[in-house]
Amino acid sequence: MKAYLALEDGTCFTGEAFGATGKANGEVVFNTGMTGYQEILTDPSYCGQIVTMTYPLIGNYGINREDMESARPRARGLVVHSLAEHPSNWRAELKLEEFLVAHGVVGIRGIDTRALTRRLRRSGTMRGVIATGDWPLEQLAEEAQQAPPLSGQQLVPQVTTPEPYSLPGSGPHVVVVDFGVKENILRWLTKLSCRVTVVPAGTTAEEVLEYRPDGVLLSNGPGDPKDAPDAVRTIWDLLGTLPIFGICLGHQLLGLALGADTYKLPFGHRGGNHPVKDLATGRVYITSQNHGYAIDAGTLPREVEASHVNLNDGTVEGLRHWRLPAFSVQYHPEACPGPEDSAYLFDRFMKMMN
Predict the structure, then answer these.
(1) Which of 21, 38, 43, 341 has the largest count of CB atoms under 10 Å?
(2) Distance of alpha carbon 245 from the chain centroid
(3) 138 and 24 belong to one structural domain
(4) Is 334 known to be catalytic?
(5) Confidence of residue 338 (pLDDT cuts 50, 70, 90)
(6) Are 226 and 340 in the same domain?
(7) Contact 330, 318 (CB under 8 A)
């Protein structure tokens, strides 16, 4: 069956449908990872987006339940050049296409993903529509133009936990504010023997403190940080009361709470090969990233410093308050694009709590 990808600038790509049939709209982004498509699809931070994989062959090791970052796919669509129809891996339980069909995710394959990526790099991320079957291209381009932008969609309420839940542990008690938390963040905390309480994104500071935690972790999540003003207020109220560690969206929300501003990047950072420099040590880390917004370095208040920078474009990749026990990183220290170098950030959080 034919499938089409139409962008808001009128560009249309024709390919072959895979996964579920139907239509899906969203912000079209690209990820440069050679592997990790299952983690990408199930990462709640991709809610509201259509993901293009730049690596040409996707699906070759199948799908397994252990690598899920949430209970189901959160991306609205998937774009690949070539789909591996016969995965070969001892852990594989499903084919990628079977997984997409089971969860109603529309995919398109057989298009020039390099040309699409170059267009997104040149013009920035765009709204787009994937449609299977026969459709007038002009209609699809118009639908892409009319699709809602990522900002303003209130995506965090779609991915946060509806009710608090706990994970056992014998160590420090960590409250995780769930803006779309990845399972691997929770795995890291439990590996460090933390007792974890995961709470909805709308939890107030007073409600967080009722759990009597030793520290608070602000999780990753989708969308524009300015769409979560209640979370910013909660973080402001918690500052100075106990250690705070922010990751990805949590980093941006901490920055807003501290008085900085955020802005949208042209095409974002998504992949497992982004070099980040720790300004305190001079050490460079190869990091996993997935974000479309960043902290404006020029708006940081005097008591807050940029602790990490991206070596590709100089954007802020970490914050540290000089006086309060609060710090954050834009990238994902729990993800492992290779070595587990960034695990030291969890150790820093543990020392703050102890």
Answers:
(1) 43
(2) 16
(3) yes
(4) yes
(5) low
(6) yes
(7) yes
H or E, element range at 305? strand 304-310
Residue at which a domain ends, from 121, 146, 171: 146
Measured in degrees and rounded to the nearest 5, phi and psi for residue 232 equal -60, -40
> Looking at residue 342, what is its pLDDT?
82
Query: What are the tens digits of pLDDT across the range 36-81?
Result: 999 999 999 999 999 999 999 999 999 999 999 999 999 999 999 9
Digit-coded pLDDT (tens) for 12-45:
999 999 999 999 999 999 999 999 999 999 999 9
Query: pLDDT of 275-299, one tens digit each?
Result: 999 999 999 999 999 999 999 999 9
Q: Which token pair is 168?
A: 């056992």
**Residue 151 falls inside a structural domain:** no
Residue 213 lies in domain = 156-353
One-letter amino acid for residue 350 of the chain: M
Average pLDDT over residues 203-219: 98
CATH number, domain containing residue 303: 3.40.50.880
Q: What is the DSSP string of 225-245?
A: GGG-HHHHHHHHHHTTTS-EE
The tally of domains found in the chain comes to 2
From CA 155, how far away is CA 26, in angstroms rounded?
12
- Which of 97, 143, 317, 334 is the catalytic position? 334
Instruction: Enter the tokens of residue 245.
Output: 């560690």
> Could you tell me how far CA 279 lies from the centroid of its own chain?
24
Look up residue 105 and give its two tokens. Answer: 């995710």
Catalytic residue selected from 8, 97, 194, 248 = 248
Vertex 310 angle, CA 308 and 311, to 5°: 120
Task: For residues 161 and 136, state if they share a domain.
Answer: no
